[in-house]
Amino acid sequence: MIPILIAIVVLLFVIIVHISVVSYKDKKAFEERIDVLEDIIAESSQKQTIQSNQLILSDTLSSQLKESNSHLRQTIFDINTDLFSDLFPKKQFK
User: What is the end-to-end Cα distance of the chain in Å, rounded?
Assistant: First the structure.
């Protein structure tokens, strides 16, 4: 009877050790996957920050281009008006 109890205790001890080893391996694999995911998240965050900065720059550039375009249109219109005035002076009516 005692040998059977010793065998059961040894068997349970082996099972506990086996479960502990498998659990440890799973924990390490999980930590490795978490590390990879953290790296991916950090990289994505950096890319998002860069894209956000580019978008802000793009918006700023767009507004500056609109202002410049408006100013250029007005300048070109003024130059054309002056040119037509010089080429075709108003007739003097007597």
Answer: 141
Count the residues in the chain. 94
HEC profile of the chain: CHHHHHHHHHHHHHHHHHHHHHHHHHHHHHHHHHHHHHHHHHHHHHHHHHHHHHHHHHHHHHHHHHHHHHHHHHHHHHHHHHHHHHHCCCCCCC
pTM: 0.55
**Residue 7 pLDDT > 90:** yes
Q: What span, in angstroms and rounded, lies between the C-alpha atoms of 17 and 9? A: 12
Q: Under DSSP, is residue 41 helix (H, G, I), strand (E, B) or coil?
A: helix
